[in-house]
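Just curious: can you write whichever protein you like plus the matching structure tokens?

***
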Amino acid sequence: VRSVVGALLLRGALRASSGSFSPRTVSLGTSWRGITTPLPRILQDKRAPFIHARSFCTVNVNQHIDDAVAKYKEGDLEGSLSHVDIVVRERPHDVPARLNRASLYKELEQYDECLKDCGIVLDITKDLVGADLYSSHAYTHIAEVHRLQGRYDDALSAMRQAHKGSPSPDKERIIARLQALNTPQVNLKVPSFKDDTKYFTSLAKGTHAMMHTSEVHGRGLFATKDLKKGEVVFSFEPFAATGDAGASPSVGSCSHCLQAIPSLEFSNLNILKSTGNLTGEQCVELRNEVVNFIGARHTPTTDPEADPLAPASCPQCSETYCSPLCKEEAAYKYHSSMCSHGDPTSPFSVLQQQAQKSKGKGEVILFVARILARLDKDLPAGKPFEVGNDLKRLVQGDMGGDTMALEKAEASNMVGEDTLFGLLQKCFPTRELPLDVYAKLKTIVNLNTIGVTTRRAEITVTMEAEEDSDEDEASNGDKQSVDLDMKYHAGTEGGCLFLLPSLMNHSCKPNVTMADPIMSTSKVSFVARDVIEKGQELLWRYAGAPGMTRQERREAVKLAYGFWCNCPACVYGGDQIVPEDEHDIAEAMQNGDLSTK
């Protein structure tokens, strides 16, 4: 009898949604972030809607629905739930009421209760014609609960059922994302060698870090002393660095260190000097002030005719660098093996052009090309490429059967004159590039590259005439006062591959950040974000920006690195991490308020 009554009530609910009764509003909660799947005739309200059948109960159900709406809009989820509980108790077969309660359970992280309500909805609607929309909502709730708990296989199965009951492009996109999360393209592998202790001790010499193992993360870096906020933990030169994590650097950026080329910032100074408004002494003083602000890649000068920030270029291919120092370093480390000699048809030129059209794979292959060029200079002539002694110790993707099968399939599809892999092989005609070396280097780049944003200096020159006494004016003529306003703005985005810093483990709320500006010398400095005690692990954020929800952060890490984040910020913290202003550290360092030694 109860089943029959329930079926009749559900049919009444369905008729109500088609126009017999007016819908009321409370959160359905059947949407994922930015995706809404409304029931029929839902009111266009951001706090979306609750559709219900006319009440045949003695309790004023409609009043409880109104109260549930009001409590929800006030942010009182527990209060809203108490009113929806009464609705469900009075009308146990009211499907929309159970779906709304499931939504509240989900927001309150009472996942078992949410799944229980969804299961009852599926039982009620199992044999009813026209109830696909309700069952689709129930499966959507189930899928999201599994997704929030990292059970992507179960989430994928439930979402497919939801899409089957009520197809939509939004559900298709969710299914595609769940498929990616369920089958990550990487399984982490941490290499280990007999001489690791000796090697890493030597690598960390002169820093405030040492490699140890812990039960939490396994291999990681730990502080060797108490560190103050802003204190430099270590400074390292990148093994390789490329603009936009592999794409060619933007116009006006150094091809080697990624810094903005600031010579144009001197245009105002040069004009003022040429018009006689600046003396040679003033020009030298102002230029050196700018040099000291931008960084030590450039050398101050005493020559008023010299431009200490003049860029340098490769005479063969016109590759541009911010300074002669960067030009020399690039030539020594890799550029001599990558120079196109001005030939647009050379393998490196064509590789660059094709890679820019193939975002993702193209960027990684350009990064691999720069690494191969550096390895090419160190290996004996004719010897095949191999993963060097330094790179082989970094985290890699598992090179098991499945991974190698994918690499072989990709390589077989990319062999040829106009393909990226084929062009990469042609760039080094005197060396063999084994497939396993290429595959390992790809995973090393993907898993160990640290994203950076360099700074572009903005310099404004203001001149004003000084007011002098009549006596001074008669003897010295007019004087000019020059004011420099210097600021940093975001410059080039890129990626750096380090040997020691890349060994830091992940946390969504790390205790280490980059100094700002990123590169004032050939090295990148990593500083303490907060006070770090001796023996505390040094942690870095792999993925997931501040301001993201916990779920978004976890999925960003899962997609990129293949593991489910269980850092304290995700396990014990709130849903969001308030974005820290990292520039406060940089400003304090520049003002001398924090130690940089």
